[in-house]
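#lab-general

N.A. 3:47 PM
ok so I finally got the sequence cleaned up, no stray characters, all 279 residues accounted for. can someone with queue access submit it? mine expired

B.Y. 3:52 PM
send it over

N.A. 3:53 PM
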Amino acid sequence: MAVLSPTQAAPLLRSAHEEGRLIPFLGAGFSMPLNLPSWRELVGWMADELGFEHDLFEVHGRNEQLAEFFGLNPKNLKNLIYQMTRRFDSAEAEKKRRSSPTHQALAKLDWHTLYTTNYDCHLEGAIRDAGKAAVVLASFEDFQGPRHPNACEVIKFHGTLEQPETIILTESSYFQRMALEAPPDQRLRSDLLSHSFLFIGYGFNDFNIRYIWYRMHQLRLQSQARHGSSTSMGRRCFFATHGAGPVQPEILAQWGIDVIQLDPTDKTASVAELLQLIG
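B.Y. 4:20 PM
back already:
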């Protein structure tokens, strides 16, 4: 079991970054400074459209299940994604991004690849704000297009609002992704063999990221078996959290993931400081 302070983790992260072997994997919590809609707000919007009381609608299932129910009428889902685009990629959110300490700290570093389960445009936007090139990879066509060797490739693991057909939102779309056979998954398999990942912006109880962690571990074991190695588990990964507790580190250690305990009193500042330590 390994629980690291940011100072303890910094040399490991810095070394991997200098080798070009560190890849951030960013969730909704990373974008807290932008005040983007939460899942609960989206569920509330769906409830309004269907004529439910918010609290009553929430008790009928998990977020993905409620989105599945809402999307039984394709027109509903199309309207929801339109509303999400208006809110997530608004001019107000863009203005906040330009002063966001987490986005600024991320963009100051040079990355060849970023992964995110966020739908919005603000990660690639922050990189471009810093005068750097970024390209988004979400669809099969994106991965088949020309490579941009000097650009950071932002892999939208749950799709991008700029391509609504790629969005992973309903329960069935999550189930389809769990096979990890889509183009972003194939890229993940490749990157996993030679890179360390730094997960920021996820909760330990997030089932979807936990499944990704589990599958990443299984892919490592499969690669290990194919190459006849009985000792090497490949490069370790890191999970930055604001509340490690006694359970998380034990579980994640068996999956090759070290926990970095951040300061819970100022979550945004602690994430920015961790990134600054890498540079």
